[in-house]
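SECTION: protein entry
WANTED: fold as tokens:
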Amino acid sequence: MRLVLMGPPGAGKGTQGDRLAEWLDVPRLSTGDMLRAARAEGSQLGQEAQRYMDAGELVPDDVILGLIGEAFDRPEAARGFVLDGFPRTVAQAEGLAAILVGRGESLDAVLDLAVPDAEVVARLSGRRLCSVCGEVTHVAVAGESGRCPTCGGELIQRSDDSPTTIQNRLRVYREQTQPVLDWYDRSEEGLRSVRGTGSVEEIFARLQQAVGG
């Protein structure tokens, strides 16, 4: 099963992507993880990506797509994959399609976790980072103590989790990603919108249904 999982920041792509990957017995592939792995391995693409990141520049699409092609070649991806948060532009979607066509493959489904902006703001603005152990938690979990439930350390809010910053991230996401969603909606794979609110279990059950589980 070859899936693309999309959704705004805070939609729960990481959590649900992991669950889908385990359920389908395929790897969850995110560009962030692939970049970190390539850098650690010191591969040619990893070194090229490192040069751009060291210069504070975005890693070009051809490098990202090269890393994805390498990930597809690994034995664990023989049964498929869950692509988490990629592609982010129409050019990346076209590049991904070209890679799959070259392999005689295609996507089985493109899933969009639909979460209202107000819900995203509530989720992300409530996130806190432990200043001691680095654990990420939510104010609803920390409760009145306001301390890390893991180690008791002081919880702090990251600057990118402020409501104003989150609203800006959502605006950028809509501007960049809506064309990708429209592109997939017109494609052979189509676009399957899945309601991303409710409990983790409820959302996962909807995703399973969307892919025919």
